[in-house]
Design a protein that fits this description.
The chain is built from five helices and eight strands; from the N terminus they run βββαββααβαββα. The chain is of the alpha/beta class.
């Protein structure tokens, strides 16, 4: 298993040819907030828990700021989820956020501070996917380092 500054990276990725359903399953199994979408070993996007929620929710949800007035949307959610199931993950991914496997802790921290994703794809010097680094694991590792000082 690959590591970054002693933190184990999670090999959580899905091929760009995968479906939304396959990506959702891979995301759930990873227990991360984001997984890498790869093409020929290179990261071309991220599939996050936000894309998952938006994909299975009614399209108007993104426009609303409050939904308590809605009684129940379960049939609509079920219908939307069924419709999106076989769509390509490419249409539901976002721009990738990456760092190189030999990056400094300070640079990794800066990337997490300036991105909304809860996990970042780690790549090697040839820009090939190595694994995912979660914000939570990275923060806990930094806390352990502070307590050792």
């Amino acid at each position: 298993m690959s590591t970054l500054h002693g933190i184990e990276l999670v090999p959580a990725s899905i091929d760009v040819a995968a479906t939304f359903h396959e990506a959702a399953r891979a995301l759930a199994e990873s227990r991360l907030p984001a997984i890498a979408v790869v093409e020929e070993g290179r990261v071309v996007g991220l599939f996050t828990d936000e894309e998952l929620l938006l994909g299975v929710s009614p399209r108007y949800l993104n426009e609303l700021r409050h939904t308590a007035f809605l009684d129940s949307e379960l049939p609509s959610v079920r219908d939307t989820a069924a419709a999106v199931r076989s769509e390509p993950v490419r249409t539901h991914m976002r721009k990738p956020v990456t760092i190189e496997v030999d990056t400094s802790s300070l640079h990794a921290a800066e990337r997490f501070v300036h991105c909304e994703e809860g996990a970042i794809a780690v790549v090697d010097v040839d820009d090939r996917f190595v694994g995912m680094l979660s914000r939570g694991e990275f923060a806990y590792a930094m806390l352990r380092r502070l307590s050792e000082s």
